[in-house]
Protein: Multiple drug resistance-associated protein-like transporter 1
Organism: Seminavis robusta
Amino acid sequence: MCEQIGRDKEGNGSNVTAHDEDYESATAEPAKPPRPKDPLAEASPISQFLFMWPYPLLKLGMKRALEESDLPEISEADTSAANRIYFEKLWEEEKRQNPNNPRLDRAILKDFVKSMWYVQPMYMLAAVAKVSQAVALGLLIEAFEDDNGQGYLWATVIVMGSLALLAEHHHSFFFTWRKGMRLRIAAIASIYYKSQRLSSTHQDTSANYGQIMNLASNDVERFMLAALFCSHLIWAPLQCIAILCVGWVLLGPAFAAGVALLVVGFIPLQMYLSRRFVHFRGRIAAITDTRVNFVSQAVYGARVMKMSGFEWRFLDRIQDYRAKEVDQIVRANRLKAWNEALFFCANVVISVVIFLVHVASGETLTPRDVFTTFTLVNIIQIEMTKHLSLGVMGVSEAFVSLKRIQNFLEFPELPYATSQTIERASSNSKQHGDCCLSLKSVNCNWNDVETVQAKSDQSTVGSTEDMPALTDVSLDFNRGQLTCLVGAVGSGKSAMLQALVGELPVKSGVIGRNYSSLAYAAQDPWIMDGTVKENIMMGKDFDAEWYDRVVNSCSLNVDFKQLRDGDETVVGDRGVQISGGQRARIGLARALYKDADILVADDPLSAVDSKVGRQLFQEAIMNLSVNRGKCTVLATHQHQHIGDHRCVLIVAGRVAHIGSYEECVAASGGKLSAHAKDDSAVDNLDGGDDKSTMPPGVAKEEEHVAAESNLLDDANGDIEGKEIKQSGLVKLETYANYLRAMGGLWVGAAMLALFSITQASVLVTIGTVGRWAERPADQQNSWAILGLVIGLSSAVVILAVSRAMLSLELTVKASQRLHDRMAKSLLRAKIEFFDTNPMGRILNRVSADVGSNDDLLPQTLFDFCVIAFIVLGAVATTVTVLPFTLLAFPPLVWYFLSVRKTFVTSTRELKRLESLARSPIFAMLGESLGGIATIRSNQSLGYFRKKFEEAHDAHTRAFYAFIAASRWVGFRMDAIMFLFLTLVAYLSVLFQQEGWFDVDPAILGLSLSMLLQLAGLFQWCIRQSAEVVNQMVAVERVLEFGDLESEAPLELDGDEELTGKGWPSTGAVKCDGLAARYRPSLPLALNQISFEIPGGARVGVVGRTGSGKSTVVQTLFRLLEAEEGTLSIDGVDVSKLGLHALRTKISVIPQVPTLFSGCTVRENLDLFGCHSDAEIQSALDDAHLGDVVAALPKGWDSIVSEGGSNFSVGQRQLLCLARAILSNNRILVLDEATASVDRRTDEMLQDALQESFKEGTIIAVAHRLETIIDYDIVLVLGHGRVLEWGSPAKLLTDGGAFASMVNDTGDSMSAELRKRAFSQQKEQGGGDVEA
């Protein structure tokens, strides 16, 4: 037994050792051209003050489309790693200070106050400047009326106030925006790190993909708004009090009445609306989680969905979730519309109320009073109804998001070693004997997790449901020894391996560990999106000699010759570009390349044929691991290889017997069937198929095909290409499509008219109030003028509300139509689309881009239109009353156009780069969730974290460049308005004093008060116009996925006529000269194949890896359309049918067993509730899963974990079998369906299939020849051609390719297979089926 050695606090097994050591061992990349340095770090004080430092990048963007390599480096403080560490420190400090009730929102708020103190004096400067301007405006108008010679003084005060605001606004905005960005970076990085600590074996805590995606895409965006506006929660009330004092001096109690209306009426109403809005935000986020998760299920199970004909059912479910989501968004937007309308008309309504009270109390209005009041009220209105409400909304939404993020951060984790469960030796502890792993009375439960409790600082291990995985296991594993774990499906073999690698928590007992490293090859091999070489090395240093030995022993050298780029071939998301056998061999090669002290392999031989299986066992597992003194643990159903090696029988999570293979079979009580030992020598596979077994002429053809596949044209070579970046202008067609989705051209024209009329009504109202103030005192009480002012004010309110309601309603409806179009297009896309696009990329469009169209674009578009009309109104008014200002227009307009062009051209590309840089973040989140057990067990966390941080920093570079560009343009636009205001102020004084032009004080007041309003609004208008263009990129991306190349029609008019009722009645399949290829640039995958299957026959399809077996299945289902030839069922050419008429009549059990996570077991069998409970129970019993499902905590209502990880791979295949039995079709296709089950279970399943489909046609693709040796017919394929066809006995007698494959299984197995084949022939009376 291993001695009990020092305790490892870091991890339950080898899974968490050296997390960060792997940083150094990441694969060295070729040198890239140096990236530009951070321009802000090297900028001079003047450059920083005037925001000149972003210009070099914008200048480059004018010359050519910006590329990712053009983006400058970010500072250390903006990196993913730095912000995550900072964020985690804050959270740990909060937990230490408030152990009973830690709150992430409190920790973040305290940090914000401490770290952003230097912004507060800027806000104070801005407040003083705004009030001074308002007072100076009134005094300037008075100077005009009295001609007192003080015009220049007050004009200077106005100009200096504008200069102070110009300096303050952009710097405070930049600092707070950057803080928001850092919070977002920290949250995303922390979510990623947390996802790597989740349990891979707990059904409730493997948080669903959709929820994590939503947290990392939508929730984190709330920090930006909160950071920008939370300071206004203090400064807005302070400014309000200061202005009340100034107003009291000016107009007395009347001004207080107006402020009271604002404070008692408008603000509480806005607060209420904001609170309600946050309530809806939480509900919307939950529905979005569900919708995105369901779409991820459709993408993940695209093959199953299409083969089962479930597209419309999935679409209905997605659209149903979407309709609920949009219903909540529309209701939230109605509140938002009231908010917008209140903001727009508050200035007019409150000012008019002040003037009415003032006149009613017997006082007289003057133009000075009117325009000072308008300006002061405008300041209060912007601060209290816009900035304050944005602050409340931003902070409220951020608190909701932080609560959701905190809940996720407190999710139960994989328990890292508690003191009684793990003992670990030092790396040089050879003195402790040959024992590497020692289990003593170990008990494990599936649902054990480390609860990250809020109540105490100590984490505790708890269990939600008592689900035993291993019971009282005591076992040793020694160096240089192979231990084979055997047992029926679901007996606990994988559970044992997961306990050994540290993925299954130890409830009680001790696992003694005496090694320095461990490697793990999972049963369901996890493949990351990258090259084959990257998958094998997984961040380790490249050792050419060892790499070649590993690759050759796993028979991958043969595959490299066939792959276009050899080991540099990109395998695609989840390895979709390669076969199941290739995935299994890459997974094993990865574990071997690690050259660890212990190799743990979970059934790596099930997905390959017997010849390759023998090579993997003898050359890879024996030669590279066992014979080199490694401790090797192998769970397998390929018992022919076990021979004299140590064998452990596992039954129901207990060790039932330890001894020889024969002893374990005897001890199994009939649950295992004995396999004959395979003593054959390994053949050299480096020539592909044994060409001696091929018909004359075929061998030569094969060489030609292999050569052709190496010469694929480069244009289509990059199967798993990068996401395509559109460049240049957002196309006019995109705007036209968006307008159509809103309701068409007439709707657009009507909205334009409504915006014009609303803005005109405001100008007329203010002008009328100015004229009212110019009337003699005795005429100011006249009902004619009072009625006109009240009527106009009411019109402003009605128009403002109507405009906001209609705008936001129409834009959200447009987003819904675009989403539904995309969802339909996505589900109808060809299977090639899902094979060549990572899930993260697809979900980026479904979550982030749709979220942008739902939330950001409607608000931005509305903002832009409102402000654009305010700007046009102000400039038009100024030019009308002061025509001499036209002199300043040409230079200012020229500068404005050149700045805007520079900004829009460059930021459009920056926004696109930012969108593209977002996809890898989501892809890595999804990828790491799927492969967390493999990543942790192989100590590759450091490598993946480094990869994630690189992807995250790439996104930050694009986003930071966009922020910098926004400040560059904002500063310049406000500078233009500052110059224009300076000209108007000084020229009007000059012209008045010199008597060159008679300036009407009332109209000058209107003009200057509007121009003061434009100080911040004009640059906001230009930035919003660019932001609309940038956000249209999301519309463009959604539209792009709305026009994907579709499969053939699902239904055709002639379907019923062609098939009639009860088709297919016999299930006869005829294939005549069928040819098919995966892509135009690739060689034929099926080359003129012909065969005929009688109705009710059982047909086995066999052949080497890559022979075309799975291609036949895809062509039968028309996932791959035939290029020539025909395929007919019961005499009906399937190419003439709608896809549903064909696919719903064939049942399938796919090669990769696909379960829908987040759904119950019952929903996985019957996703759309078409079957009764009795039918479902019967199907489960037939698949030998009745007891397994009954033992789950909630029976068939138990939730399936992400990727089906709470079932063994064998059990997942059995669930897919039960699903097929339920469909009860005349034709059943099995694509390697029993590869991961033991021989005894396989035999029972074949009996169940025979019973359930006794009159049906069964077509089984198989590597294990014992599965199909009893079948009626065997079809042998080689490189896309039919090599042989006939009964097993006939083919064995002929001595061709099939006989060669049987011989490859080894002498004992070969003899048994021949015996079964000939006895089957005798039972059938010696008949045979001819091609």
